[in-house]
Amino acid sequence: MEMLYRIKFSKLEDVMYISHLQLIKTLRRIVRRSKLPAVFSGGFNPQIKLSVGPPLAVGIISRGEYFDLELAEKLETEVIINRLNNVSPSGVRFIQAVKIDKSTKSLSSILNTAVYTINFNFNENLNLKKQKKMLDEFMKEDKIIVVRKRRNKADREVDLKPRIFSAEIVEKDLWKFAVVTGSRGNVRPEELNKALMKKYSSVNKITPLDVIREGVFVNKNNKFYSPYSDSIVRS
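Structure (tokenized):
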């Protein structure tokens, strides 16, 4: 009997520059090498049946990505994680697996929030109190407009304000944003940076190494859940 597992993994520095498509190929290769009893699609070019959550921008590392994997038989989740980690390349680590019902909604249809921490660089020494004041002022703006470049299309203005669910300062220079992602659109860390640079001359341009995607979540009534929490898989 086929079983569906939702698996959490991290994508770290050694693989930060591979694309979303390359990541899917890498996951399939790892599953194949792990000798897990994966289910394959039909047709002339059968592929391991797995589906991944919202794409992660090239150059950004993440501590919490997800994919769904179909197996031909039931296995203990610890066995699945151990087998995957034993054959995974440096930079991809598998964290947790949960068996879910096959009727559970897909990752792409439920994951709508990404949480980023950004290590900002300032051209002056700003203490924690000043940084909190800056963030409060920033979030009180009626609109946060950035110009989004589009390939083969005219540039367009995007208001980030309704797409930012929450913002806080974790510690001096380290800011955390929960923003929309998935089918409803997305907010890019570099866009937050540009908006802050526009408002404050003390904010410098960030690099990909200054950004970590802490994870992707389901925003349900302004509460953030993992995609395999009981309130999500049983809803």
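The first helix runs from residue 20 to 34. The chain has six helices and eleven strands.
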